[in-house]
Design brief:
By secondary structure, the chain is an all-alpha fold. The protein is 80% helix and 0% strand. The protein contains one helix and no strands.
Amino acid sequence: MADKNKDESVNVKKVVMDELLLMKLMDGALEGGYNRWHYEVLPNGTGPSK
């Protein structure tokens, strides 16, 4: 029984680490897109009209 719990703990840890890595990658991608929009689109006056 202890080995099963240990295996499940390792599996849960891997899933959580994978999720954190994905979140970090998504955060970086979204931040990069925002920075491009903010510094390239806004100063040129070509942003969306209201």
